[in-house]
Amino acid sequence: xxxxxxxxxxxxxxxxxxxxxxxxxxxxxxxxxxxxxxxxxxxxxxxxxxxxxxxxxxxxxxxxxxxxxxxxxxxxxxxxxxxxxxxxxxxxxxxxxxxxxxxxxxxxxxxxxxx
Amino acid sequence: xxxxxxxxxxxxxxxxxxxxxxxxxxxxxxxxxxxxxxxxxxxxxxxxxxxxxxxxxxxxxxxxxxxxxxxxxxxxxxxxxxxxxxxxxxxxxxxxxxxxxxxxxxxxxxxxx
Lengths: 115, 113
Prior knowledge:
The structure holds two protein chains of two kinds. Chain A is mainly β. Chain A has no helices and eleven strands. In chain A, the strands form two sheets. In chain A, strands 2, 4, 5, 6, 9, 10 and 11 form a seven-stranded mixed β-sheet that branches. A four-stranded antiparallel β-sheet of chain A has the order 1-3-8-7, with no helix packed on it. By secondary structure, chain B is an all-beta fold. The radius of gyration of chain B is 14 Å and the shape is globular. The chains are: A mainly beta, B mainly beta. Chains A and B meet through strand 5 of A and strand 2 and strand 11 of B.
C-alpha cells in the first residue's frame, strides 16, 4: 500500500511487557516522527528521526526506544509497558526539514491499552 | 499574551548557510535573543539585538530583525558540525513587562555530511 501505515492498529498488553509499534512509509521521506495523543495534551512528540540511523528525543521520550535501520521503517518499542503509556500513537513522515513549511503525513494511529 | 514561535527542525549540509527563523507577537519587545543549547549543556547566549536595529553581524552569525513583521532570523554562515544544537529565539520587553524573557520551543539544527 502506498503511503504511511502503522501496525498493529489496536493492541492490548500487560504492565511490564515489551511492545513494538511499527511504522512504514513508501515515499522515502527523510524525516519520521512518533507522537502520542492523550486527552488534555494534544499531540506530544516522543522521538523523531532525520534519516536512517539518526534519531533524537522529542518532548516525552522516557520509556520508549526507537531505531531507524531503513529509511522506510521507524519502529517504536516500549521496553516495559506501564499504564501511563496507554494512548493513541501516531507515526508521521515529512520530506523536508523545515516543519513550518513542510507537510507532515500521518499514519492511521495505533490504540494501545496497557492493563 | 506574549508568544515566540519557531520551526522545530532544520537540516543543512556542512558548509552551507543555516537560516533559523522566529516570529514573536509582542510589539513592545525591546531585546531579541538567540541562545544555543548543545547536548547535555545549558543555554549559551549567542547574540542579541536591540529592537531599534535591523541587523547585527558577529563573525559567522548574522541576525536580521523585521520589526514590522515581528520576524527575527539567525543566519549561520559556513555551517560546521559543531553548530549542531538546539537554537532558542527569545524576547524581552520594556521594564514594565516584569523583565520576563519569553522563549520559543527551540529549533534543532542537524548538520548533514
